[in-house]
Specification:
Blueprint lengths: L3 E3 L2 E3 L3 E3 L9 H9 L3 E5 L6 H6 L1 H19 L4 E7 L5 H10 L4 E5 L6 H4 L6 E6 L2 H15 L6 E4 L5 E2 L4 H5 L6 H19 L5 E4 L5 H10 L3 E4 L1 H4 L8 H9 L5 E5 L5 E5 L2 H7 L25 H10 L22 H9 L4
Parallel strand pairs: 3-11, 4-5, 5-6, 6-7, 7-8, 8-10, 10-11
Antiparallel strand pairs: 1-2, 9-13, 12-13
Helix pairs in contact: 1-3, 3-4, 6-8
């Protein structure tokens, strides 16, 4: 297994631990992945305390993210550290500034097209990795970054139709995933990248993200032609994940039959595990909520069927009936809870 090269950063294990919010991926998980030689990633979504966020969401988010970045550095001084920032966040620019100020290695940005990201990080050595699900999205980012900033992405993450969480596909595409299979997406993205790579004189690594829950899945994705992988679902069932142990056990018992796609308040399909909350939403019920945070730009609180921030917060406290538990299609291969470094250990041994 060869290392992942992102600019001047060498990642021994070609794996990015996905930035999973709310508070799933914090310093403990990111540091564990970093110590194992992979890229550890902190999610910036809902990172503050509940009480602090209710008082001042912006300040609390900034303060807690900076604290988590510093703690991750202490726990894994040599690890490669990333932060995942959703474009849909209302405090996107502020969170990017925290990452620049704290000198994180990588910013990963999706759930929208991060067209302004290079401008927000101008003068910083931070590496930029957009998350996309089509060659068309890749083309928009490349053309915009080239025109405005004379800048290329340092790497790209391609999320396929079997991925977990928010999905950049139509419901018709998700019903026929073979029409947008990740191998096809890789070919499209590579074709779009080629002329820009030729102009800038550098190759951009592309990482695959979907249905990667085992070491064998990693090898299969690399054999397909990807330079590395992003893994999310497997890390929910790690000792370092920030969710309640009852929720981890729920994940570990789940199978592919427990997965369903629903509509998110951010206007995208989202793949989750079936539970009482999801059944209520599928039945057309509107779950009453207030909107104390205003955390998402794209969320229409008056029209939304539920508050995604509130539902994700329930995973922290073990409220399985009312929690929103995002999951990829590989959940059936995740049946135990273990340290993150133990999962990554077989890959660490293969690095050459």
């Amino acid at each position: 297994m060869r290392p992942l090269i992102i600019g001047d950063i060498v990642v021994p294990v070609p794996v990015i631990q996905a930035g999973m919010g709310v508070q799933v991926a914090k310093s403990a998980l990111a540091a564990a992945a970093g110590r194992a030689g992979a890229v550890g990633c902190i999610s910036s979504v809902g990172i503050g305390s509940l009480t602090g966020s209710l008082v001042n969401y912006l300040n609390e988010s900034n303060k807690k993210l900076a604290e988590e970045i510093r703690l991750a550095r202490q726990l894994a001084p040599r690890g490669v550290l990333a932060v995942n920032i959703m474009v849909a966040l209302s405090n996107y620019d502020e969170i990017v500034k925290v990452c620049v100020d704290e000198k994180v290695d990588i910013i990963i940005s999706g759930a929208g097209l991060p067209l302004s990201l290079p401008g927000c990080t101008a003068g910083s050595p931070v590496k930029l990795i957009p998350v996309i699900s089509s060659g068309r999205a890749m083309a928009v980012i490349l053309k915009t970054w080239h025109r405005r900033y004379q800048r290329m992405p340092d790497a790209v993450i391609v999320e396929g139709p079997l991925n977990g969480g928010h999905l950049g596909f139509t419901y018709a595409q998700l019903a026929a995933p073979e029409t947008v299979a990740i191998a096809l997406l890789l070919a499209d993205v590579r074709a779009v990248l080629a002329p820009f790579e030729a102009e800038y004189g550098k190759r951009v690594p592309v990482l695959g993200a979907e249905n990667v829950s085992t070491v064998e899945d990693v090898h299969a994705m690399l054999a397909m032609g990807f330079d590395g992988v992003q893994i999310g679902t497997r890390f929910f069932c790690t000792e370092e994940a920030g969710i309640h142990s009852d929720v981890k056990r729920y994940y570990a018992k789940a199978t592919s039959q427990d997965i369903v796609v629903i509509s998110s308040p951010v206007g995208m399909p989202v793949r989750v595990l079936r539970n009482r909350l999801v059944e209520r939403l599928l039945a057309g019920e509107k779950i009453p909520f207030g909107c104390p945070f205003r955390c998402l730009r794209a969320c229409d609180a008056k029209a939304a069927k539920f508050c995604i921030a509130e539902a994700l917060t329930k995973t922290l406290f073990g409220d399985i009936d009312n929690a929103l538990m995002m999951s990829g299609c590989g959940i059936g291969k995740v049946n135990n809870i273990l340290p993150a470094e133990e999962f990554l250990a077989p890959l660490t041994k293969l690095v050459r």
